[in-house]
Amino acid sequence: MICWFDIIMFHLTLFRSKPLSNWMFVHLYLVLLSALMPGIEAITNARGKSGLATAHSYNRGFCPDGVTSFEKIQGAILQSANLVPVYSNNGKPVTAECNNRCRLSEDCLGFVVNYDLGACFRLEQNSDGRRQDLVLTGDRSTYFEKVCLHAPGCDRAWMFERVLGFFLDGFDDMVINEVISRQQCMELCLRERGIECRSAEFYYDRQQCRLSKEDRRTQPTAFRPSSDNVDYIENQCTSYPVSIRCEFEEYVGQDLGTADLQVASPTLEDCESICDQSPGFNCRSFTFFPEQSLCRLSGDDTYSAGVNLLQISPHGSYYQRTSCLDLSLRCTVDTMRITLRTNRPFTGRVFSQSNPNTCEVLGGGRRDTEISFSLRNSKCGVTQDAEGVYSNIVVVQHHPLIQRKGDKAVKMVCLFETTNITVTSGLNFMIERVNGGLGGGVTSIVNATAPSPRIQLKIVDENEVDVNGARLGQLLYLRLEMEDSSIYGIFAKNLIAKSGNSIESIPLLDDHGCPNDPAIFPHMEKVPGSKSLQSKFEAFKFTDNPVVRFQVTVQFCLEECHPVKCGHQYSNGRKKRDLSEGRPQPYPYSESDRAPWSDEIQDKIIYDETPLQRDLIIDIQSYVPTALSRTPDNDLSHLVCTTRTAAVFIVFSFVVLIVCVTVVAILYVKFQKRKISENGFTGPQNTPSQFAEMKTVESLRVCPTSQVPSTRESKQI
After folding, report:
1. Are residues 599 and 456 in the same domain?
2. What is the pLDDT of residue 657?
3. Phi then psi dihedrals of residue 713, to 5 deg
4. Model confidence over 307-338: pLDDT tens digits?
5. Is 86's pLDDT higher than 90?
6. Do 286 and 403 lie in a common domain?
7. What's the alpha-carbon Rg for the chain, to the nearest Å?
8. Residues 306 and 330 in one domain
9. Following CA atoms 477, 481, 484, 489 in sequence, which dihedral angle do they give, to the nearest 10 degrees?
10. Nearest Cα to 254, choosing from 218, 297, 289, 222?
């Protein structure tokens, strides 16, 4: 039996970060926990400085002879389970407290954290036998499921992260058959000593476990959805790769909103250091609030949670890890030789910023990538800054085709003095905003018996402003806008991004509407309250061309197009939680075996397909704001902005006015001639006959048809 002193000390640790107003609750809670199982001492000893109970914390009732931990499923809930409120903290991070409470409770088989509410809810059942009830919500919420593992663990609050319906294509180092459960696959990964198991995949139908020394961050292009019943599981007990250039990129005035822990931090550097040394979980991002000296740590980043979760944060800025670079420079009497060393195979490019096409080298899956520049030849960008000082700017691009935020431009400098000295200095990638591009969205009209829907392909920023130029890494929306009054629904597929010269291209959505690489371009969703579609992405560019040309095919359906299942995510419409209230679910998605359209979806498709195109220009040489701005040399007071409809109306009105003035002028001239004639004016000899002709015409207009005289008789009157 644990003494009261030990219980009080444990709970002082548990609630040490809570305000005094919670102390009454703590004392009441002690009474209920006084009869807990003897494993409480082990939890107290295993608790780290992060405030989270770790994987070596034991729950004797749930896991009597193993290690109790959790697996994390970002953005998911278990539909069939009842949510019982456990803890809330007025919008502050609650993951640590919820983790601790659920770990100690035999009835808690998992918990859901709602980051927007700052609250968590426990579940009394898990996903075993009901995997189909796990639903991705797209909200700021995370499901933690309790697991019992019979393998050596680590000091992590959750030992695995799980992604439904995804796999790492082509990087299976070990394949193990006759594995009966996902938990057994996790144990095999933890026990493996032949390789450093960073991730695993469990195939439920095949009862197969595949281990890999790579993960979704070391091989992002290989991480993709599958139609098989497979889950990707990532080992959190492996260390984060550390090298000499592991940095955090800044998102000014934004926040991901998925903080797991909050600590006091007087400076940004302290906050970054706390994230680097976090013992309770792999800290991948943080948000720093300088006015309040607060640091919020998160185990997520935009890669795992998606850029859609980024929100405006006027008092803080968000930071997440970028790729770690290990660059070395060797200077000889005539050569600058640069070597990039990576812990994992490098498939991107290293090139000179001034001449990317000629002066480049492809990674090719090697861990050591080397490029050399001649100091005597300036075609590759080597410049002599001063006597004995030569420099060049080298770009490390992680994707073989496109540049994204996180790619680095590094200035390399060789100093030739009494001895050779090499210096490297880091630069943030140049991300200035630019001007230019094609004006307006491309509009296409599809004719049908019903009112023709008008489709517009737009690229807008977070302020709903249509843009033609953007800075690298800027958050944008690619939007397909359609009239809400139309009886049609729309479906997007075959979205391709091309360079301005059409030499390079990268597919973003396949022929089923599923994203090829969600990290570059995620699935499309409905704009709330409309029939339009949009997807939030970070601006990227091709290496040697500032123009990114988006081409997409839009297909029309009667009433509504069904969303497409891409792994465990849905594209082009309602989320899975909405499907239970409507029509049957659509066909599955597969990389290797394309599934056909279901009969129901086939009947609803109109086979008119509309291609749309839009250009976006990204230029890293100059900064010109996309929005109009007033400057001393740019006075816009004389400009009048109007809509296309108003402009057409103004032109039409002007034409009608001109016609009316002309008619009035003619009538006025005729009236004056008649008046002069009646007053006895004698002009040229032909004037009376002409005037008589006009009178004759007038008489013809008023005579009945039967009494109309002939032309000859009229002239004699």
Report:
1. yes
2. 92
3. -65, -40
4. 888 889 999 999 998 766 778 888 887 889 99
5. yes
6. no
7. 35
8. no
9. -100
10. 289
